[in-house]
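Instructor's aside before we start: the two examples that follow are unrelated to each other. I chose them only because their records fit on one page, so don't look for a connection. First example below.
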Amino acid sequence: MKFNTKAIHGGQHDIDPAYGSVMPPIYQTSTYSQTTPGGHKGFEYSRSGNPTRAALERAFASIENGKHGMAFASGLSAIDAVIKLLKPGDEVISTNDLYGGTYRLFTKVFEQFGVKFHFIGMENAAQIQSYVNDKTKLIWVETPTNPMMNIIDIKACASVAKKHNILLAVDNTFATPYLQRPMDLGADIVMHSATKYLGGHSDVVMGALVVNDDALAERLYFIQNASGAVCGPQDSFLVLRGLKTLHVRMERHCENGKKIAEYLVKHPKIEKVYWPGFENHPNHDIAKNQMDDFGGMISFVTRGNNYEEAIRIVERLKIFTLAESLGGVESLAGHPASMTHASIPKEEREKTGVVDSLIRLSVGIEDADDLIGDLEQAIG
């Protein structure tokens, strides 16, 4: 089954037995009747499992070419479950350009429990090797990274991980499985903020994990159930609905993203544009090899690295909405230094290129000419 078909039908083999509903019904229930203690029809309590959530989890696994899918209350709760696989004294090698909430979770929550994190540039995957020791248990990768759009070679990371028996987790939020399938490249865990492209309509908060290994899935499910980090049936229904149009939405995100990137790179007031589709983008060849297209996420810096100018631009936008998040049908603009990455210390942010004048765009599926016109009037 090819991706476009899987997005609609993947994992959805069970037709509603009551009325033949085409969409899995919303099972808005906390508990389920039993004929005898332990005698139930597959579900006993909705923290442990819910039919609507189960349908979504099968869909997650299907589109990522995985075996087990798990739906969480948020992307961060999914990451939280992964780090809870570790114990005090364990070490994690993480990319140094990553979502601010991930950095905050790693440094402000898990470091105090004795987990050590190394934040390094992974554009050259060979650099990972020098940080590996007998305490290293996990490599955490984002690609493309947030917000600098760096590209990391997943297959090369997997080679290091397998050599040392280390877990490799890949945050696939920016690319989505429409463009990139880390499981096929050797990842052990694929993570998504399903709030973004998978849901696609800016109306739900959710996270996802996909794995192939049965024992690993069992450990993660235990952590999720024990911690209560589950999403509700209404949210599950919304994301399942969103998945069914992922392929057509991503086509337009990519198409519009290319037009916006090419417009910005020619603009006399723009100094630098970060988009992996440019041939001069670092690791463009890797992106071309492991991705099917280059996505709709773009970051740029104005000439002179002027903070006030960046703020003026995002405040003047009319079609692009100044807001947190990304991946919805509508175009969003953000100022990472004061919004999504504010939790990262300024000195650390700027080491990776997240300067105060950086603007991040999530290019939606509106008419590209209208979006370019909006940027033109805002940039001036």
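Example two begins here.
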Amino acid sequence: MSYELPPRLLNRLAHAQRVTVLTGAGLAAECGVPNARGAQTGSWAEYDLIELATPQAFLRNPRLVWGWYAFRRGLAERATPSPAHYALVDLEQHFPAFSLITQTIDGLHWRAGSRDLLELNGSLNRVRCYECSTLCLSWDTESHEPLPCAHCGAWLRPDVVLYGEGVSSQLLRQAQLAAEHADVFLIIGASELAQPAATLPLIARRAGAYLVEVNRDETAMSVLVDERLADTATAVLPSVAEWLMGNGLSREGAV
């Protein structure tokens, strides 16, 4: 059954040229991919995240950190993109200007087909050199030990933002521009927006964007948005895509 979308939201989408979406861990959770704390099961429950997900931890025990992220990559690889992920691909193809910003590191957006994608926290599907930052998209994923960089010989590490590290300034600027120029800004499954992602909806609102939140639970952003859809992304986004693809009014129409 299709989700009943608010007429005011449909009117905004019908006239929007530039749409920006920010997704969070809630979308990953719908696919069974836990966040860092949720992944601390079995033997991993014995460790504090400081021992698993910080630059200092990697320098102290690179094998442990490598293994932790290999475990999390395995969890993500066993998951499949949800209907919400595929709906976002449809939105990307529909709007003249579309940006998808995500806090997730599971790679599910990419696997679903999203390409105008800004992965603020990196991806489990890449590694990079700890010293020279050379990216590597293909490596021995069965290795239990960190591998040497082909360029400088230093250790390869997961291409994710570890606790205590900052988001790439270039990537953050791209995300800020996407927020600043959005006609409609959607916040999807982001119950906990960490900095600097937490500033993006505020940038969009100051620039005049129509803010929409899709989340079953209320969040700190709920009081700021123009429209709140209290349900899962999987329940809501396929209906948005279906409506845009022709089962509602055309882009030239109005509600």
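The first strand starts at residue 18 and ends at 23.
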